[in-house]
Amino acid sequence: QVQLVESGGGLVQPGGSLRLSCAASGSIFSIYAMGWYRQAPGKQRELVAALTSGGRTTYADSVKGRFTISMDNAKNTVHLQMNSLKPEDTAVYYCNAELRSSGSIYYPWGQGTQVTVSS
C-alpha cells in the first residue's frame, strides 16, 4: 500500500509564500516522477509542476518564475515552494506520483491541501 500525504497549505496574503510538501510512504521500489496539481472551485484539475527522477521539470505557464518544485530522494518527498502568490492561485493542491511498488506501476494521489490567497 502506497500513500501520499501532503502538508503545508493554508491562508496567505497576496505576495506571500507557502511551501507544500508531499511524502510518499509504503513499499516503494522506485519513484519515476512526482508532481503537483490544483483544482479551483468550478474548474478542472490542472498540472502545476512536475519533476522526474532524471531532474526534468515542467511548470504551468501561470506559475513559471514564482513556483519551484524539488525532491528529497532520500525521504521520497517532493516540495513546492510558492512565492509571489496571487488570489488566482487559490485552490486545493494535490500531489501525484508515478512509482513502482510490488512489481507494478502506480499513480497514487494525495488527499489534497487547501491554499487560499486572500487579503
Could you name the ranges where pLDDT drops below 50 across 5 or more consecutive residues?
A: none
Major sheet, described briefly?
A: 7 strands, mixed
Kindly provide the radius of gyration, computed on alpha-carbon positions and rounded to a whole number of angstroms.
Answer: 14 Å
β-sheet strand percentage: over 45%
N- to C-terminal distance? 40 Å
Kindly report the average pLDDT value.
96
Helix content: under 10%
Shape: elongated
Structural category is mainly beta
Number of helices: 0
Topology as a string of helices (H) and strands (E) = EEEEEEEEEEE
Secondary structure: number of strands? 11
Summarize the structure in words.
- 29% of the residues are buried.
- It contains no helices and eleven strands.
- Strands 2, 4, 5, 6, 9, 10 and 11 form a seven-stranded mixed β-sheet that branches. A four-stranded antiparallel β-sheet has the order 1-3-8-7, with no helix packed on it.
- It starts with a strand and ends with a strand.
- Strand 4 and strand 5 form a beta hairpin.
- It is mainly β and 119 residues long.
- Helices cover 0% and strands 56% of the residues.
